[in-house]
Amino acid sequence: MRKRLRNHPIPMAIGVGMSALLIGVGVVTSKWSDWQKSGAMTGLDKLEPKSEILPVISLPPEQRVTKLLEIAQNSSLPVVSLTPLQAPDRSRARYLLASDLIERGQGKEALDWLEGLEKEYPVLAAHVMLKRAQAYQSMKDQKKANEAWKQLLEKYPDNPVAAEALFALGQNDAKYWEQAIAKFPNHPRTLEIVQDRLKKAPEQLPLLRILLHNSHDDKVVSQTIDQLTTKFRDQLTAKDWEVIAFNYWEKRLYEKAGLAYASAPPTALNLYRSGRGRQLGGDKSGAISGYQRLINTFPEAKDTGLGLIRLAQMSSKPEDGIFYLDRAIEKFPDHAGQALLEKAKILDELRNTELASQARKEALNKYGNSDAVTEFRWQAAKEIAKQGDYLSAWQWAEPIAKQNPDHELAPEAGFWVGKWAQRLGRSQDAKTAFEFVLSKYPGSFYAWRSATMLGLDVGNFNTVRQKIPQVVRPQERLKLPTGSPALQELHQIGQDKDAWTLWQTEFDNIIKPTVAQQFTDGILLLAVGENRRGINQIESLSWWRDTPEEEAEITAFKQQPIYWHSLYPFPFLEYTETWAQKHQLNPLLVTALMRQESRFESDIRSVAGAVGLMQIMPATGKWVAQQISVKDYNLENPNDNIRLGTWYLDHTHDTYNNNSLLAVASYNAGPGNVSKWINQLGLTDPDEFVEYIPFPETKGYVEHVFENYWNYLRLYNPQIAQMLTQYGHQSFHP
């Protein structure tokens, strides 16, 4: 798998749509449409023209009701859609007013707004009938509710919304539940039915299969897998095992995944993972068996080249290892660079230094675009730089961005070329290198470091804390990458729960989704508060995708605002703003740290026991609470967690004289380790300090936190966005 750039590098509907904000200073008003007119948005993100309703979609019901009433009662507005994907504001306003009333239990008032609405709002006609039935239910008029459910079934029997009717009617007549299971097995309501039946009689293989293949709930799927592998192992099909293996792999339970993939359909990827999973789990003989099966079944497949290298790495006899590597070099050019470097290691062990040197030279000369050669080149450059030979280090590192520009090391190598040029007194070469990184890799940590080297006012390690940047957020939803017209409309008008429900019936390719499907899944997960899963879906778009078509599609998505705003959302902004302001912390730095710590999951717990958004250890939380005289707090409560976490981040800044590099490192590794590193590494060059932090986890943590900060700044601060256009940056600003 290519080590692509992190999709900066990694949920949108959560952040998109809230009012513009100048954190710590005041409110800034800016219209997304103004930026649309400037040409900043094209393609899938184009908004509908002249909509009055979209800017108020995300406001709470009590804040938007006046505007909705004004629009709904405006008889001069059109009542016919312009296109199947566009709906008039008046129809939308009526629908939203009805939905809000139903949520408050005011079904009778909602019915007035729903009267005849399906005729003028065809894209959501089935959902209008759904709302009508829900309105009667909120009035506790079960007779009329049942009539409405039956009308919905009669009018839209094949629409996924019909599953809601089948669920409701099945409360009193089991035949409707049978119809739901048969016709809509992937609808959340159907899955509720299945789970209810399994509670009463757990050992029902057909029902367990429905959950395995259709549920989007990780906990439910994990429990289902446990039941299936315990009670029905011998009755599982190859497709069952593929889903089980995929879930194990996603959870990094590699040995279990390897065993499960051995029983899955024998594709090249499945067989590779069968071997690799067992190898990572320590089952050497099982791994060898898996790789041999891959090689024999798919001798020409791309995964086979990597399988040959894995076999060579496990070979006890050098001659066997060289045999496998020579085969990989001959038949699989994509893996030849790595195979040559592995061969050189074996030759070194055999003390055949001349042949080892020849293998490395061939790898460098012929396969400089491979990931393994890129990593080898970069390690060599760093070792040479340690010896003070910056010119040679520069010469080793410079080809990386040219030969393998999409590798995650490319921006790092480019940045250090600039640093080494500085040390050699070649200021123009340094400036060229920094401008290249800022232009080519705009979302990377090294783009931020390059910006500081170029003298841009973007905050440095010693000044980030004090900056209170202007933050302008988009006020309107952007179009989803894929999905039915009804799904698009529900998302557009902020009906996130209904959109997520509908999407679960449309997204039937969880194991091998298209790029657009995976992107849409991430956006909608974010919309319903599943922030960690949503960010991970979008962040991993490039993983295991190597076809030119998929790469082109991903590249196109990265040109769209919805991609970047999805990777860097603003959940819990009100709490972040409040407590960052109290402790005089840059709110974007707090948000950046929170994104790295928890992906905005308020109830997440680490293996070590850290809790919540800012991942506070219970003992640390207790100590902080004592310092600020707080007796009652809950680390899973977002407000409490951010309150304690920002106090501690303030404390780490005070400890290190407002040096955010050391404060952030201390937040992760503790003050004792940071003090030790200062003594070992010194602080003459902060970039070298980061580069040589002894803990890989902390080094990555520091880079990611400041990369996050940089992306929030460039995406949501109009001044910085405008300034960066001179370096070829596309503006994704509202």
Task: Describe the protein's architecture and organization.
Among the domains are: 32-47 and 476-567, no CATH class; 54-184, Tetratricopeptide repeat domain (Serine Threonine Protein Phosphatase 5, Tetratricopeptide repeat, Alpha Horseshoe), CATH 1.25.40; 573-727, Lysozyme, CATH 1.10.530. Helix 19 (333-349) packs antiparallel against helix 20 (353-366) and helix 39 (696-716) packs across helix 40. The protein contains 40 helices and no strands. It is mostly helical and 734 residues long. It is globular, with a radius of gyration of 28 Å.
CATH topology of the domain at 573-727: Lysozyme
**Overall mean confidence score, pLDDT:** 90
Please count the helical segments: 40
CATH class of the domain at 573-727: Mainly Alpha
Outline, from the CA principal axes?
globular
Rounded to the nearest angstrom, the radius of gyration is 28 Å
Query: Gap between N and C termini, in Å?
Result: 36 Å
CATH architecture of the domain at 573-727: Orthogonal Bundle
Structural class: mainly alpha
Please state roughly what percent of the residues sit in beta strands, choosing from under 5%, 5-15%, 15-25%, 25-35%, 35-45% or over 45%: under 5%
Largest sheet: none
Please estimate the helix content: 55-70%
Show unreliable segments: 6-48, 81-85
Total strands: the figure is 0
